[in-house]
Write a structure and sequence with these properties.
The protein has an eight-stranded mixed β-sheet. Strands 1, 2, 3, 4 and 5 form a five-stranded mixed β-sheet that branches. A hairpin with a 2-residue loop joins strand 20 and strand 21. By secondary structure, the protein is an alpha+beta fold. It contains twelve helices and 43 strands. Among the domains are: 147 residues, Methylamine Dehydrogenase, Chain H, CATH 2.130.10.120; 246 residues, Rossmann fold (3-Layer(aba) Sandwich), CATH 3.40.50. The two termini are 23 Å apart. Helices cover 16% and strands 34% of the residues.
Length: 700
């Protein structure tokens, strides 16, 4: 399908306005230098590695894929399978250098290109290719930058040796299993000891897991890919941790893995101590453990318990330099912090992430007031009121090291990144680009639309909502409504980040009033708001979306509730199909992309966190299954699915389509051969064109 619309074409060419923008920042431990990835312009997808001197502002190119690997295609199919899958887990679409790792002083960086391993001297920009035992993945330098550990063919290797450090025992070594990378926020599986004499390594045994297969119908002569998938109610991967000495010594870390099977995080606190975060299967109990790398013995340092589930708070649990334990401290109304069990003063804030430390205080990304905005605060671990680092609406985020603060501000005027040095960040900063700061070079395309969504909190629940009108809208002209929805755990749709409103403005300019609502179950309003979906997904989301739509119609008389379409992807696709199947009185057409139609076939860590085990909550799983609703379809439904989707397997859509066909219910299916859950490379824009044609025909 050719992309004919100018906006969609521009979106496809610019990687949805991300090509040329700096990303993947790493500050030197003293804050004097910054590594980042960026391409050469708004239509260049190939990221290169740059080094910035934070004192002078001088920036240098230190690694270019075209120089390191001349003639490289950069095609997804040329990547090792383990890297392709991790890119899916982390939603990484960049060509060129996808990720890198560096020493604490940033003197040495390492990276892979199509399985080839390179070590970069960042002072000179000299790149050296290192011999590897097979296609390399996830390289990490030791503290001195002399040796590099990497994964090849499910084994761990340390340069220059070409014999594996890990034993050949049939397990996968040094990688994060599916549940960890997709759902638990852990994307790595090996960690250097600070002195470089040993590694902490994950051993992953997936032999008990069922296999998922992906055959490409467009290429029937090619063999199907397969991988181990942890399906709700079934076995998980058996994950162990081992200390592997370069002298070939081996020590296994031991904790009650039967009760706490999920390894959420691991790190070296020192050469003599490891810190591990583990969780039980339903994630209602999370432990911070200290481990002795010499004996493998572990001891509990803190325990976080919740009758619903323990929501991850990035940056916690952790131990401060003085030995105190930092943990999350939730009330029904707010997410906060505690030190050694004593709550810190975070009154009026929702703590979203602990970024690090600055001036002896905790640097935190926070919510305050409207959940669409995000701020940065300094929280005093010794008491005292939090100090704002940013003010003004928008989504502010931060990174810090030494006396250097990297601040990103995203608001209606765009996205700006500034370095503040030597304490110039003292006191609150506004969102203006002026001031004692060094702006980072951004070569991405200017956003076509300056969108000002009409935000409101509606119903007695205070549901966050937004309405976007066509730019040429004349009040009094009734418009069909398009509900652009996600609605599931872990993602906030109504946020003051400008890129996410670009496509919604385009949809509005096609003649729709675009409505977006964050129903209960989504993050950043309050713990109580998020946990309302406990043991049931569908009913809470459906009730909230319908009630919000009706409340907005009372405030916006131009919304024509006689013509309501709904579109979404992943959980949003699930909701779109749910909406027309169960509330055809409200929703008149739906485009459902990659919907998990039966959560009994989705993964363990996500599904069981909210719905428990299928055998313990059969009614909840049955209520949330869409397949049994098929005979009741009376509205137009377009199902869309990538046939290479290893997150929500295409069988979800095919099972619903099969049930609809057997029930004699007309519907449309758009299969996308070779396309994954991320729909990269302009596929999203092509799908959008198809959705527009379908909704126009369906709604009139």
């Amino acid at each position: 399908m050719t992309i004919t619309d100018p906006f969609l074409s521009l979106s496809a060419r610019t990687g949805r306005f991300t090509f040329g923008a700096p990303r993947a920042f790493t500050l030197a431990e003293d804050g004097t230098r910054l590594l980042l990835l960026r391409s050469t312009g708004s239509e260049d997808p190939v990221d290169r590695l740059h080094l910035l001197d934070t004192a002078t502002g001088e920036e240098r190119l230190v690694a270019d894929p075209a120089v390191l690997a001349p003639g490289r295609t950069g095609r997804r199919d040329d990547l090792p399978a383990v890297e392709r899958r991790l890119r899916e887990r982390t939603r990484l679409v960049a060509a060129g250098i996808g990720t890198y790792a560096a020493t604490a002083d940033l003197a040495t960086a390492v990276l892979v290109l199509d399985g080839r391993l390179f070590r970069i001297d960042t002072a000179t920009g000299a790149g050296t290719e290192l011999p590897v035992a097979g296609p390399a993945f996830d390289p990490r330098p030791d503290a001195a930058g002399e040796r590099v550990v990497y994964v090849a063919d499910d084994a761990l290797y340390v340069t220059p040796d070409l014999e594996p450090l890990s034993p050949a025992d049939g397990a996968r070594w040094g990688v994060a299993e599916f549940a960890a990378a997709e759902e638990l926020g852990r994307s790595r599986g090996h960690w250097w000891r600070p002195d470089g004499g040993a590694l902490l390594a994950a051993r992953v045994d997936e032999s008990a897991l069922p296999r998922r297969y992906f055959a490409d119908p467009a290429h029937p002569g090619e063999p199907a890919e397969d991988f181990a998938y942890p399906q709700a109610g079934g076995p998980n991967a058996d994950v162990q941790l081992w200390v592997l000495g370069l002298d070939r010594s081996r020590v296994r870390l031991r904790w009650d893995a039967a009760a706490f099977p999920y390894l959420c995080a691991a790190t070296w606190a020192s050469d003599q101590e490891l810190l591990l975060t583990v969780a039980d299967r339903l994630q209602q109990h999370v432990l911070l453990l200290t481990a002795d790398p010499a004996t493998g013995e572990t001891r509990e340092l803190s325990r976080t318990t919740d009758e619903f589930w323990v929501d991850d708070l990035p940056g916690t649990p952790a131990r401060l330099a003085d030995g105190r334990l930092l943990t999350a401290h939730d009330t029904p109304q707010a997410r906060g912090l505690a030190l050694d069990g004593k709550p810190l003063d975070t009154t009026g804030l929702q703590i979203r992430r602990v970024v690090g430390h600055l001036d002896g205080r905790l640097l935190c990304e926070t919510g305050q007031g409207d959940p669409a905005d995000q701020y940065v605060h300094l929280v005093d671990p010794d008491g005292g009121a939090p100090e704002p680092v940013t003010t003004g609406p928008g989504v502010h985020s931060a990174l810090a090291a030494g006396r250097t603060l990297l601040l990103t501000t995203a608001d209606a005027d765009g996205i700006r990144r500034r370095l503040l040095r030597d304490g110039s960040f003292g006191g609150a900063l506004d969102a203006s680009p002026d001031g004692p700061a060094l702006p980072l070079t951004d070569l991405s395309a200017a956003l076509p639309y300056r969108v000002r969504p009409r935000l409101a909190r509606v119903t007695e629940l205070g549901l966050p909502t937004a309405v976007v009108y066509p730019r040429n809208h004349v009040p009094g002209r009734r418009l069909p409504v398009l509900l652009d929805v996600y609605g599931g755990p872990g993602f906030q749709a109504v946020a003051a980040e400008p890129r996410r409103w670009q496509l919604r403005q385009w949809w509005a300019d096609q003649g729709f009033a675009v409505v977006t609502t964050d129903n209960r179950g989504t993050p950043f309003v309050s713990p109580e708001f998020t946990r309302a979906i406990f043991r049931r997904f569908s009913q809470v989301a459906l009730d909230d979306q319908v009630n919000a739509l009706q409340a907005l119609a009372g405030q916006h008389p131009d919304l024509d509730l006689g013509r309501v379409g709904v579109r979404g992807w992943s959980y949003g696709g699930y909701f779109a199909a749910l909406a027309v199947l169960r509330r055809p009185d409200v929703f008149h057409a739906a485009c459902a992309g990659a919907p998990p139609t039966d959560f009994r076939h989705y993964d363990t860590a996500y599904t069981e966190r909210y719905l428990a085990l299928p055998q313990d909550n059969p009614e909840g799983y049955a209520d949330d299954c869409l397949v049994t609703d098929a005979p009741g379809l009376t509205r137009p439904l377009l199902l869309i699915h990538g046939l290479a989707d290893d997150n929500v397997h295409p069988s979800h859509t095919l099972l619903l389509s099969e049930a609809l066909t057997k029930a004699g219910r007309p519907h449309s299916v758009l299969p996308l051969p070779g396309v994954t859950h991320m729909t990269p490379g302009g596929v999203n824009e092509q799908v959008t064109q198809a959705e527009l044609a379908f909704l126009r025909a369906s709604l009139g």
